[in-house]
Amino acid sequence: MNERGLEQFLLVFESLQRQAAQVLPDQHPELGRLVAVDGSLIDAALSMDWAEYRKGVKKAKTHIGFDLNRGIPRNIFLTSGKDGERPFVDQILAPGETAVSDRGYQDNRVFDQLQAAGKHFVTRIKENSTKTCLESYPVAPGSIFLFSDAKVLLGREGVNQTQTPLRLVCYTVKGTSYWIATSRFDLTAEQIAYIYKLRWQIEKFFAWWKRHLKVYHLISRSRHGLMVQMIAGLITYILLAIYCHEEHGEPVSIQRVRQLRNQILNESRMELLGTASNLHEHPKPDIIHAKT
Questions:
Q1: Which own/partner contact pairs does 191-196 have at CB distance under 8 Å and 24+ positions apart?
Q2: How many CB atoms lie within 10 A of CB 111?
Q3: How far, CA to CA in Å, does 185 sit from each of 36, 99, 134, 262?
Q4: Which pairing describes strands 131-136 and 57-67: parallel, antiparallel, or unpaired?
Q5: What backbone torsions phi and psi does residue 171 show, to the nearest 5 degrees?
Q6: Shared-domain flag, residues 163 and 276
Q7: pLDDT class for 292, splitting at 50, 70, 90?
Q8: pTM tops 0.85, yes or no
Q9: Which CATH number covers residue 64?
């Protein structure tokens, strides 16, 4: 596990992704191809020298691209815990796709790079970010949560200001204000807000992945071996997604996983009982030792 198997696992993972794209329905075709981007820390052992985080603490980090249209993981990168997350957005995203990310991914330079590459983003930014309004758009009458929609430049002129204008959609939910920077001018403000709400799916995926598949329980301490372990966890999740859809017409749930585990255990017991029965009915012949 520490030195082989990764190439084969990646091939299986990519093959399953293609299969899932044919099987699982696109839940949001009107919003385009949406990819949530986020990172998750993995507690590492002190002997894992490559997994730097801070003095006396070792952590690794997975950087995941999550297909929000079909509810499955589609990209993974593994680094030390202290490595930044923003550089992986461009690697995870393909032209025409939209990255959906939290405030940790706010970067004016990256926003310009993505737009230049024909890639989109829906990213929450800090409320106190410097903004220069270029044009204001009317908010739909009767909207109970939207309070601003505008074309802006982010950052300070001559310091870190974006070169390409972007859109800033602002709304309030349960007393919390959200400031969403996006390159999507083709959608309504309500759709932008809904896209950011969909980002919660990757948070649920991380929680589910850790709790029920226990993929963060270290089996290997090498970077190679840990990557094999992470890919195995993604493969398992995609298999479950395909199974739950084809057999039950629903997304992955712990209820179905428990039913599947019980089914596998029962089938294993029946197979063992069948083997024991065959041995009883057809005992092996005695071995005769002949003297020379």
A1: 191/30, 191/31, 192/122, 192/167, 193/145, 193/146, 193/169, 194/31, 195/31, 195/34, 195/98, 195/100, 195/122, 196/100, 196/122, 196/124
A2: 24
A3: 19, 15, 14, 49
A4: unpaired
A5: -155, 165
A6: no
A7: very low
A8: yes
A9: 3.90.350
Pick 282 or 277 by higher pLDDT. Answer: 277
Residues 194 and 262 occupy one common structural domain: no
Domain boundaries, position 54: 6-248
Q: Are residues 173 and 273 in the same domain?
A: no
When pLDDT is cut at 50, 70 and 90, the band that residue 281 belongs to is: low
Burial of 32 (0-12, 13-18, 19+ CB in 10 A): middle
Cα distance between residue 177 and residue 69, in whole Å: 26
Tokens of 32: 């385009």
Number of residues written out for the chain: 292
Q: Name residue 68's amino acid.
A: L
Find the mean pLDDT for residues 100-111.
95
pLDDT tens for 196-225 read 999 999 999 998 888 877 777 888 899 999
Which long-range CB contacts under 8 A does 164-168 form with residues at least 24 apart?
164/111, 164/112, 164/115, 164/116, 165/134, 166/111, 166/115, 167/192, 168/125, 168/131
Name the residue among 95, 121, 141 with its Cα closest to residue 187.
Answer: 121
Q: Which residues contact 143 (CB under 8 A, 6 or more apart)?
A: 189, 190
pLDDT digits (tens, 9 = 90+) for 227-248: 999 999 999 999 999 999 999 9
